[in-house]
């Protein structure tokens, strides 16, 4: 699968609803203090106070996303340091115990998808519309996006667990 085709799926998978997966009968093993602000189920991997990117809010419409349908993602944040070329994202997507994607992508190239370019600095606000493929197989997906500067300083780290039925 080409990385450019997998980014909308990856992003939508990151933002799919925890309630869709866990319903009212089970409690997720996620620390709610690490939840990303807004109408989304994203979680930070660790305390975000040391991250270069302060995410103020991420909203989805609809939440939870549905395969084969349009998803609008609105995000607002602030880069506390200038992010130069050669920053990167380590992406991992697992389907159950099977690793589907485990790759590294250029952050600046991916930001072109939301009409941004490097260097990245200061406040950013963007909206992205994606259509989720109808062919997403049923099951549970675990997604991790770990983002670093070219000198390996962590920009942010996000995770999600998603279930498509």
Structural features, described:
This protein has a single domain, classed as Ganglioside M2 Activator Protein, Chain: A (Distorted Sandwich). It has 165 residues and is mainly beta. It has 3 helices and 8 strands; from the N terminus they run ααβββββαβββ. The protein has a 5-stranded antiparallel β-sheet. It is globular, with a radius of gyration of 15 Å. Strand 4 and strand 5 form a beta hairpin.
By secondary-structure content and strand pairing, the structural class works out as mainly beta
Radius of gyration over alpha carbons?
15 Å
Count every beta strand, where a strand is a DSSP E run of 2 or more residues.
8
Output the CATH topology: Ganglioside M2 Activator Protein, Chain: A
By CATH, the architecture is named Distorted Sandwich
Shape assignment: globular
Helix content: 10-25%
Largest sheet: 5 strands, antiparallel
Task: For the largest sheet, list the strands in their spatial order.
Answer: 1-8-7-4-5
* Number of DSSP helical runs: 3
Estimate nothing, just give the exact number of structural domains.
1
Mean pLDDT: 83
The SSE string, one letter per element, is HHEEEEEHEEE
What gap, in angstroms, lies between the N and C termini?
22 Å
CATH class: Mainly Beta
* Content of β-strand: over 45%
Descriptors:
single chain, five-stranded antiparallel β-sheet, 165 residues, Ganglioside M2 Activator Protein, Chain: A, mainly beta
Outline the fold blueprint.
Layout: H1 3-14, H2 18-22, E1 43-44, E2 53-61, E3 70-83, E4 88-95, E5 98-106, H3 107-111, E6 120-131, E7 139-148, E8 154-164
Antiparallel strand pairs: 1-8, 2-3, 3-6, 4-5, 4-7, 7-8
């Amino acid at each position: 699968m080409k990385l450019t085709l997998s980014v909308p799926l990856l992003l939508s998978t990151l933002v799919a609803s925890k309630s869709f997966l866990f319903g009212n009968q089970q409690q997720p093993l996620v620390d709610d203090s690490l939840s990303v602000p807004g109408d989304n189920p994203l979680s930070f991997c660790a305390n975000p106070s040391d991250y270069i990117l302060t995410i103020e809010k991420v909203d989805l419409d609809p939440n939870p996303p549905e395969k084969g349908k349009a998803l609008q993602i609105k995000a607002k944040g602030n880069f506390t340091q200038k992010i130069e070329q050669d920053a990167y994202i380590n992406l991992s997507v697992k389907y159950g115990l099977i690793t589907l994607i485990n790759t590294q992508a250029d952050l600046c190239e991916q930001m072109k998808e939301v009409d941004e370019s490097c260097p990245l600095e200061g406040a950013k606000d963007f909206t992205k519309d994606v259509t989720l493929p109808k062919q997403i197989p049923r099951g549970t997906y675990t997604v991790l996006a770990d983002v670093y500067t070219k000198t390996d300083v962590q920009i942010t780290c996000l995770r999600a667990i998603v279930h498509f039925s």
